[in-house]
Amino acid sequence: SNHKGAITVQSEPGQGSTFTLYLPAVDAAAQEAVLPSAQLQSGQATILLVDDEPFITEVESAILENLGHTVQVCNSGAEALAYYRDHYKHIDLVILDIVMPGMNGEETFLGLRSINPEVKVLLASGYSAEGQAEKLLQMGCKGFLQKPFTSSLLSRKVMEIWKGEPAPPDNPPASEH
Fold first, then answer.
1. CA distance 142 to 138
2. How many CA atoms lie within 13 A of 3 on its CB side?
């Protein structure tokens, strides 16, 4: 994070996890500048979040639900396919981790697509888009987020893919590239 802060996680069996975010003290005006609400796009999509790391699904779910979305979490590809098969008519978007034990992102994507050829998938990975992600984008995935990503970027990518149009950028480009 660029706040020079830290996140600690404490997990207790049966108690859930406690996330503590340490941010340097800043006055309210400076804090406003960090996350103008325009950068966070709210919406009411129903999202299937597929990731084997509970830490990530908890944080992403919290961000998305805070923006108004409904989130269903699955911790494996097999679980995601079983859930999607029963509920795909109500799911607007799938956020899919590429690297998972068991069924990987590609197998999961092919399974989702066989249930619903129109499935909208946003890939997430700690690795860059080259290789696996690039192949999946060519196969029909709609977008890619490299972890770790900001809540602002997550919110915009979700809206972009859900609505099928690019979200407005944070800042209008100063010049054409």
1. 9
2. 17
Question: CB–CB of 142/121 below 8 Å?
Answer: yes
Cα distance between residue 133 and residue 32, in whole Å: 34
Structure tokens at 156: 């915009």
Q: What tens digit of pLDDT does each residue of 85-108 get?
A: 999 999 999 999 998 889 999 999
Half-sphere exposure of 60 (CA within 13 A, CB side): 28
* 159 φ/ψ angles, rounded to the nearest 5 degrees: -65, -40
Give the model's pLDDT for residue 30. Answer: 42
Name the nearest CA neighbour of 43 among 171, 157, 170: 157
Q: Kindly state the DSSP code that residue 8 receives in the 8-state scheme.
A: E
| pLDDT, tens digit, 9 for 90 and up, residues 108-138 | 999 999 999 999 999 998 876 667 889 999 9
Among the listed ranges 8-17, 59-68, 76-85, which one has the minimum average pLDDT value? 8-17
What pTM was estimated for this model as a whole? Answer: 0.73
DSSP secondary structure, 47-58, as one string: EEEE-S-HHHHH
Degrees to nearest 5, angle at CA 34 with 31 and 38: 115
